[in-house]
Every structure is written in structure tokens, then in C-alpha cells.
Amino acid sequence: MKYFNPRDLAGHVDVLLSQRGEAITLRFAEVADAEALQGYFRGLSASSRYNRLMGAASELPAGQLDRFVHIGADDGFSLVATTSHDGVETIIGEARYALDDETNSIQIGMSVDDTMQGHGIGTALLGNLTCRAAELGADRVSGDTLRSNDAMLALARKVGFSFTPTPGDWRQVRFEKKIVPAARAIPYAGQRPAAMIADANCL
What we know:
With 203 residues, the protein is α+β, with helices and mostly antiparallel strands. The chain has a single domain (12-196), classed as 3-Layer(aba) Sandwich (Aminopeptidase), CATH 3.40.630. The protein is built from five helices and eight strands, in the order E-E-H-H-H-E-E-E-H-E-H-E-E. An eight-stranded mixed β-sheet has the order 1-2-3-4-5-6-8-7, with helices on both faces. The protein is globular and about 45 Å long.
């Protein structure tokens, strides 16, 4: 798979659009985002944190937070979705993907602030992650979620993911999607508004 230059973060910023037409900036998380990212996780409802972290927690564990804000740690990359009002940036969603060269695949996980759910942001995030996987040359993109996470399962089903049991954990289900070969010829999502992803048939 391809790898990008972490010094060129500005070249990997996308603009998503909510169903209300609100601009959502999607960029890589950096060390300076640690406090705001932790505040975001603390602000999620207990059920949203449980679904994202696969267990009860009041915040993102310190070790995970450290990995989330260090680009490329454990071959993982974290993205934050933000809005800006009066010059103040607020995190309203996050996503993380990890590269697996052995299977030529990308594993993903994501969440959206409870107050912003239902506005198409999750769909846009999942589509963006699929486009990033295609650009990196992955054969497929997948993720694991709890069987009780109806919202994530409905979202994955909506955009064409298939489902299989997660090996070794009966509580989870794996959602997976093969990357259409033609999608790799589509310009990287960062080169155009991610709102155009559907029109580009990247989903």
C-alpha cells in the first residue's frame, strides 16, 4: 500500500457537508488536539462511548489518546471532524484507520457527537474513509462493532458493507467492503470536497 508524507498534512484535509449544508472539516489529529479530543470523548453519551470503545469508559484511555494524536503510531491514523463558529473550532466527530499490509486492507472505527447524529455526517465519514482506502491501494476496508450497535450497523448496511462474525469475539460483528478497482483511479478525496464522493462513485 501507499504511504503519505506526514509533513504534508495540509494536503489531506477534506471538507464534508452535513445534510443541512454545514461545512465539516476533516483533518488528521495532531498532538495539539489531545485536550480537545479527550473533551470530545467525555462529551459523548455513555452509550456512544461504549459502542466506540467496546466497553464502559468515561473517557479515552491515556494510552489510546496518545496513539490517536501521534500520526502513524501502530500504523494507525486518526482524523477529527470539526466545525468552526466565530473562529472557534469544535470536534464533532472522529475516525481512525489502521493499515494491514499482510491482508492489504484498512481497518476503521469512527464516532459522531450525539447532537450531530442524523445529519449525514457518519455517512460522509464512512465514504471518506473508503476513498482514502482506495487511494492507498487497499483491496478492502473493514471494521468491527458491537452487535448491539444498531446505528453503526445500519450505516454500514446503507453504504453497501457486508457482514460476517468477528473472529474470536461473539459480541462483535465485522462489516467489510471490497474496493472497486476503478475507484483507485479517482483523485484522492483531499483533492476535492468530500461531498462529491458519491458523485465520483467512490462508494
